[in-house]
Q: What sequence folds into this?
């Protein structure tokens, strides 16, 4: 118990500092965990309580993701979501998978590494767009829809991995049934749900917390992974009043997720045959591969490689979902690799996003000097 | 794109975006983000880099009050203005149409200040505006009175003076 208190206190300090410097907090939470845990000072060990907290963090992260998935909205933006999404998926999954496999990971490990390699951090992308005041750029809409597409792929990947050796058809029928039941509940119980959410007392927050926990425990009876069930719950609840649910689930998500990140760091162990060359290659490729997909997306969607640079800058950072994959399905070696990749990409990403405007201007400037003289734009 | 076409868009995870193009070809975009702040971007025609301002909800409301010209434009409804810099001072301005029962009486007769605490700051009479009417000012049917005060004083005015 003292371990959690110590870790939380350190995270509180880190949160203050990172917010002040407007840096992403996630890599520093992991580093704090590494420092306090097995690989560092050995002051904090994972115990039953921290495991429970971490699991809550993961469940609420996924519930939140589910709330954000609104099928009808995605369908109305199909073309925008699809083109960029497919480029991003193919480029990064393939590069990630080949790199991981050639560097000695097994087939199933390579799949996890590739998925974690592919999926950018939605939280960091959105924060960087807002904090760097880039919302009006045409590229930010592309980035935002890219994040939605990646969430969808994550669900598919998680379903495929957790299905494992089970009969795939039975597994998916089960998930569809669950989704159907939850949808029906949300549809026919909508008025009831909304009446609960509208109250000013403690009821909405108790209800939200209980709904997520009950759904997760109920999944055992059905033999469906709780991750899938909680996402399904989010998707179903999104048809009622997603904003209210987000508001009531946010405190749980914010607190438990910090514990989740720290204790992911705590469990990391650099002693057992960690190959730093492999980790370095994966981390560098993670930055390069998003540059390739970003530029391709920029050319296909906005007709400009420069737009691609902007997309790249905001999607370099890997974060919460990569770690979720590592925690759920990764071996210790995969976990360490993903941890370093998240730390490296999120820090590089935060600087790239902050200075992308200078970067673009610098490149345009150099292009002008060497190319035929063009009229210089007014403006800053 | 036709001018003044207001486009509103829900961006997943970010918030709501409103964007429109002015007659002159400049673009204004407002984002209500999920973090609770409001960002306003303006992009001058022909430019590529927008400039941005981030506001708290209170600041955004102040900007809104300025842009709508709240006091001048208010016609039949009431407008509440919050002066956030002055300990959140709130002033309400309300327009009342003078009923028959009040016509022919002066502001003094009605004892408006004593009974309600509100003040008549202007009267509109057929396209003519009388600013700061004196106590001896006589109301006529069809006048529109602009009354200023706290919202309670305005309610009092409605109950005490506007009776048929």
A:
């Amino acid at each position: 118990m003292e371990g959690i208190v110590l870790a939380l206190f350190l995270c509180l300090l880190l949160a203050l500092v990172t917010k002040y410097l407007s840096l992403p907090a996630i890599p520093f939470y992991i580093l704090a965990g590494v420092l306090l845990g097995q690989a560092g000072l050995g002051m904090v060990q994972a115990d039953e309580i921290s495991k429970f907290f971490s699991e809550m963090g993961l469940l609420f992260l996924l519930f939140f993701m589910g709330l954000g998935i609104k099928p009808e909205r995605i369908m109305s933006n199909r073309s925008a979501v699809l083109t960029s999404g497919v480029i991003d998926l193919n480029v990064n999954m393939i590069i990630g998978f080949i790199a991981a496999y050639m560097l000695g990971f097994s087939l199933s490990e390579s799949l996890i590494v590739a998925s974690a390699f592919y999926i950018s951090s939605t939280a960091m992308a959105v924060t960087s767009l807002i904090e760097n005041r880039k919302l009006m750029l045409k590229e930010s809409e592309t980035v935002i829809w890219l994040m939605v597409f990646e969430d969808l792929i994550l669900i598919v990947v998680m379903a495929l991995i957790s299905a494992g050796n089970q009969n795939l058809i039975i597994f998916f029928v089960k998930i569809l049934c669950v989704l159907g039941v939850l949808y029906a509940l949300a549809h026919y119980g909508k008025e009831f749900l909304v009446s609960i959410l509208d109250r000013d007392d403690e009821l909405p927050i108790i209800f939200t917390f209980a709904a997520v926990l009950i759904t997760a425990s109920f999944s055992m009876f059905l033999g469906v992974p709780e991750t899938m069930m909680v996402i399904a719950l989010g998707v179903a609840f999104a048809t009622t009043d997603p904003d209210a649910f987000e508001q009531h689930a946010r405190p749980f998500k914010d607190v438990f997720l910090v514990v989740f990140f720290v204790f992911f760091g705590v469990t990391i162990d650099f002693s057992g045959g960690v190959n730093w060359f492999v980790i370095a290659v994966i981390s560098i490729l993670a930055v390069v591969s998003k540059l390739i997909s970003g530029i391709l997306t920029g050319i296909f969607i906005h007709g400009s490689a420069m737009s691609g640079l902007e997309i790249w800058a905001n999607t370099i950072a890997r974060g919460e979902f990569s770690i979720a994959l590592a925690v759920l399905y990764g071996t210790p070696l995969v976990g360490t690799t993903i941890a370093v990749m998240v730390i490296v990409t999120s820090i590089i990403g935060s600087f790239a996003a902050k200075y992308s405007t200078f970067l673009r201007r610098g490149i345009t400037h150099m292009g002008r000097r060497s190319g035929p003289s063009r009229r210089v734009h007014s403006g800053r | 794109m036709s001018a003044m076409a207001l486009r509103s868009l829900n961006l997943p995870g970010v918030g709501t975006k409103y964007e429109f193009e002015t007659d002159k070809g400049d673009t204004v975009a407002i984002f209500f983000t999920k973090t609770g702040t409001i960002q306003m971007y303006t992009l001058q025609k022909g430019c590529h880099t927008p400039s941005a301002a981030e506001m708290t909800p209170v600041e955004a409301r102040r900007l809104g009050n300025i842009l709508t010209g709240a006091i001048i434009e208010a016609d039949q409804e009431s407008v509440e203005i919050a002066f956030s810099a002055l300990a959140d001072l709130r002033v309400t301005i309300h327009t009342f149409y003078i009923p028959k029962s009040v016509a022919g009486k002066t502001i003094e007769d009605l004892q408006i200040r004593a009974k309600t605490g509100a003040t008549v700051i202007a009267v509109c009479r057929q396209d003519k505006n009388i600013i700061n009417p004196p106590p001896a000012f006589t109301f006529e049917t069809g006048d529109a009175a602009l009354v200023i005060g706290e919202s309670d004083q305005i309610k009092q005015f409605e109950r005490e003076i506007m009776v048929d």
Q: What stands out?
A: The radius of gyration of chain B is 21 Å. The beta strands of chain B are 7-11, 15-21, 27-33, 38-43, 51-55, 79-83, 89-97, 119-125, 128-131, 144-149. Chain B touches chain A at residues 10-14, 17, 19, 27, 29, 31, 33-35, 37, 39, 41, 43-44, 46-52, 54 (CB under 8 Å). The longest strand of chain B covers residues 89-97.
